Amino acid sequence: MKPASNLQKMLESGHFAVSGELGPPKSADISTLKHHAHDMRNHVDAYNITDNQTAIVRTSSIGVAATLMQMGLEPTVQMTVRDRNRICLQSDLLGAVSFGVRNFLCLQGDHAKFGNEPGSKNVNDLDSMQWIQAVKNMQDEGVFIGGEKLEHPLPSLFIGAVANPFADPFEYRPYRLAKKIAAGAQFVQTQCIFDLDRFEKWMEKVRELGLHKKVHIVGGVTPIKSIGAARYMQNNVSGMIVPEELITRIKGAQDKKQEGIKVAVETIQRLREIEGVAGVHVMAIAWEEVVPEIVERAGLYPRPSLA
Amino acid sequence: MIVGERKPLAEIAAMLKPYEKVCILGCGTCVTVCLSGGEKEAAETAAALSLLWQKEGKKGEIKTGTVLRQCEYEYIADYAARLEEFDAVLSLACGVGVQAMTAKLPEKIVLPGLNTQFMGYPVTQGVWKENCLGCGNCVLDLTLGICPITRCSKSMLNGPCGGSQNGKCEVSKEVECAWHLIYDRLVKMDMLDRMEAVQPPKDWSTSHHGSVRTMVREDVRVETSQ
Known about the structure:
Chain A is α/β, with parallel strands linked by helices. Helices cover 39% and strands 15% of the residues of chain A. Chain A contains eleven helices and eight strands. The model of chain A has no long low-confidence stretch (mean pLDDT 97). By secondary structure, chain B is of the alpha/beta class. Chain B is elongated. Chain B is built from seven helices and nine strands, in the order E-H-E-H-H-E-H-E-H-E-E-E-H-E-E-H. The chains are: A alpha/beta, B alpha/beta. At the A-B interface, helix 5 and helix 6 of A face helix 7 of B.
């Protein structure tokens, strides 16, 4: 089957993929986001657009995706099940497909209590697993969740999921990935990797189960911009592990920002050595301008051009 | 049981502002057991409110009473005559009781003295936990007695999300991750295969999402005049 997107093409041709991440603003002015997208266009194969990340109201992922498509760039639309019931999820997916989006990342979403509308209802009509399966069924069988047929078949999509090797129960995490693959995930992006030892342990089990041959595993990498940012991730972002040694290392460096970039580059280099890791997803939150440098220093530039 | 918590006195006082003859009415069942709306709490509330009225210079009369079950018409009917003299009833029952009272005594003003919290149980003296949402389609067989619909903050049916760490939910270190509990239990009982199959989307139509529910059992049904 013909790959649905550039990202899928890159991963299936065996190239080490690189994706970037864009967090939409808390306004309808996306000019800065467009600059960031433009500045890393030669360094990433696709752009994740976050969906009201950490439950904070922002311009919609699909809205931004439309702009990216107009710019000739490839979006991966994140869709959480937190804010939409199955009617809206399916409808929004169709809307995004209608203007050319092919990459979808299906995820649960942080609880609304973390965001700027803590009193809102958490929808969770579906869970992330069911949403992955629903997208697969819409594509493969041409049916909605309720059983009704789509009036026309969907084009091929590239269905993504997330995996968090840093969450518990740790022993269960590879099996959860297996379940997501069974549900329909074709690629998976991981939570930001700071604890490489734990990540490697997770990958060992993933390989033992043969999962790396069934799904493209893309490792999440976030450059640490400051000690404050590291502490914030350590204490306030759910499902993260930021080892104390890493914070000590950056604290001890003369140029802390350079050290943060260096750590990210080293992480990518180590990930490239791990059997079964098919690419990296660089999440430089509020620090998008360093993505080209990181990609270049990690030896992943220029990006292969695929016909 | 249904667990409730008494509303703050200031809110109760504000609610009762227009009324001078008030009955604070406890309920003898769930809210008595959870120490929030029984005879004792009715007396305590009456004493506190009297003091407040005195301080504010408000003239009025506060009495107390208890209905064994404010959620059942028979018990309300037996008590109804004793409520005639009052302008308003502050019910310390759950929301079910307040509404059954209103339905049975439509000429009376019945106000809620409690915030109804949840269906749950006391884990230890003074601590109650929610453990059933009344979704209308029980899955406790699948998860061996731990409800993911109620006790997972995201009502997930297919295992723990990425926010589960050290057995705790991302929402709070005070909240256990239900799926971690389920996982541990399934491992212990050698039944982990129960987490393998993808559980399909839940049919929420059996829950409150399907609109207000009425249960009819023809085998025990007797028409009564209300």
